[in-house]
Amino acid sequence: MRIGFDLDKIFINTPPFVPITIINKFYKKRDNGILLYRIPTRSEQLLRKATHVPLLRPPIQQNLTFLRELAKDKNNHLYLISSRFKFLEPETEQLVKKYGLDKVFEKLYFNYENKQPHQFKNEILQKLHLDIFVDDDLSLVRYVAKDNPKTKFFWLDDRTTPVKLGTNINAIAEIKQIFNQ
What we know:
The chain is globular. By secondary structure, the chain is α/β, with parallel strands linked by helices. The longest helix has 12 residues, at 61-72. The protein has seven helices and seven strands, in the order E-H-H-H-E-H-H-E-H-E-H-E-E-E. The chain has a seven-stranded mixed sheet. The chain has helices spanning 20-25, 42-51, 61-72, 89-98, 101-104, 117-128, 138-147, and strands spanning 2-5, 77-85, 107-111, 132-135, 152-156, 163-166, 169-172. It has a single domain (2-179), classed as Rossmann fold (3-Layer(aba) Sandwich), CATH 3.40.50.1000. The mean pLDDT is 88. Helix 6 (117-128) packs across helix 7. The chain is 35% helix and 19% strand.
């Protein structure tokens, strides 16, 4: 099985004590039905670099444990697909090494060319022909699901019960629920 995962909020948590509304303000433009992300200004980049150090980005341990169990089955081909921009490359590489992600995934893809995140992920998904993809960004999932109808998409959120959101989109509360849908 070919399975892809996002990084942040899937395996790496957000900085403690930073409200999600503040985090989202630094990522997305207000959209008028068009999905647009923005590359942060230089000052915002410095702030984001400071909040992306491994000390402030704890692992989501139960998801890493699940990932390592999946990797034991040699029939599974696992891919990390993150839309982190180029300016976060040193911090991203530190996290990947610290949590051993480079030893678990067959291939890691990062948005170091600073493309629009939804377009970057769509390009990678079309190239990989995944069976399953897990992400925490519902707007992005809805965008890529249209061009990848054979892939089952899972939006990881804090719902207590799984919900079907479309033909190939499901909401899940825990990563292990990808095999329950």
